[in-house]
Amino acid sequence: MGKISTPKALRGPDSAFSLSSLLSNKFFVFNAQPKGGFVNEYVGEVIDEEECRARIKHAQENNIGNFYMLTLDKDRIIDAGPKGNEARFMNHSCQPNCETQKWTVNGDTRVGLFALTDIPAGTELTFNYNLECLGNGKTVCKCGASNCSGFLGVRPKVRR
Ligand SMILES: [Zn+2]
């Protein structure tokens, strides 16, 4: 069993994603979206950081490569694996056409995905996970953007 580094994605409210499915699933829009338009809500089971770590550890020990976790605030994470919607199939891109925004709705924080540009119907939706690597190893980014960094979570860090 490998050592699990604490991902930066779990440490602050501004960072978005930890690991996710890469290229195994995709999410396309049916209808054209105007710039700034609301695309979808990122929903799932809300868990705390301890539970998140436990799930990641479990996944790593069982060679489960897909995570669908997004930091909600400093104590809570959305795990879209068990109870998520199709938003979890959005892939990472270094030049995404969507972004996450956090909104307070009736006193609770919710995460929406919004179009960064005008998006024609049938386009694959992407956003930047801003992720740090979980565990060991690099994940190759295949987004194809001209500014692609080449890897997701370039520097795995071990925090004590
Ligand atoms: Zn890329």
Task: Produce the secondary structure layout.
Blueprint: E1 38-42, E2 45-48, H1 49-61, E3 69-71, E4 76-79, H2 80-83, E5 91-92, E6 98-105, E7 108-115, E8 126-127, E9 139-140, E10 151-152
Parallel strand pairs: 5-8
Antiparallel strand pairs: 1-7, 2-4, 3-4, 6-7, 9-10
The chain binds zinc ion (ZN).
List keywords for this structure.
160 residues, alpha+beta, Beta-clip-like, 3-stranded antiparallel beta sheet, 2 helices, 10 strands, 25% strand, globular, disordered N terminus, disordered C terminus, binds zinc ion
Task: Describe this structure as you would to a colleague.
The chain has 160 residues and is an alpha+beta fold. The protein has one domain (8-152): Beta Complex (Beta-clip-like), CATH 2.170.270.10. Helix content is 11%, strand content 25%. The protein has a three-stranded antiparallel beta sheet, with no helix packed on it. A three-stranded antiparallel beta sheet has the order 2-4-3. The protein has a two-stranded parallel sheet with strand order 5-8. The longest helix has 13 residues, at 49-61. It is globular and about 40 Å long. Residues 1-24, 132-137 and 153-160 have low confidence and may be disordered. The structure holds zinc ion. Zinc ion (ZN) binds next to loops.
